[in-house]
Amino acid sequence: MESREPALRGVRERTADTLRRLAAERDIWVSTAHPEHGPHQVPLWFAWDGRAVWMCTGATSATARNLRKEPRVRLALPDTFDVVLLQGEAECFTAQEVPAEGADGFADKFGWDPRRKEKPYVYVCVVPRTVRAWRGEAELRGRVIVRGGVWTR
């Protein structure tokens, strides 16, 4: 089987592809860290609202505990060839505090509404400050498509 380097995309195409994936994909890897216990990584369902990633996790999960101590987070879509990495600070909301648009978008996408569950959940919102996207080695240069929260388009 022959391996071919993918066609080099410009920033507009790379940004459009990334936004398409954020709108369509279901899972995202969430990496947090606790000052005493170190790194923690878990896949979660997510919804993209055009500005932010919305996730949900149990209120007592390691992810929620870590974010209370250290809100900086890294997120990654689950594809090692078509890489999308996001960084930002997480804001956590209880089911009673979560903005309706975030929780409704999550519920609409998955047909599951944690606000209606007995177990307490935390909604996690991350507005990306940095996004890196690349396919193959040729796209490593220019991989930053969001810097300081601004899309480079």
TrEMBL record:
Entry keyword set: Oxidoreductase
Ranges for domain Pyridoxamine 5'-phosphate oxidase N-terminal: 23-134
Matching InterPro entries: F420H2_bilvrd_red/Heme_oxyg, Pyridox_Oxase_N, Split_barrel_FMN-bd
Any Pfam family: PNPOx_N
Source organism superkingdom: Bacteria
SUPFAM superfamilies, A to Z: FMN-binding split barrel (SSF50475)
GO cellular component terms given for this protein: cytosol
Signal sequence interval, chain numbering: none
GO molecular function per UniProt: coenzyme F420 binding; oxidoreductase activity, acting on the CH-CH group of donors
Protein known as: Pyridoxamine 5'-phosphate oxidase
Annotated source species: Streptomyces ficellus
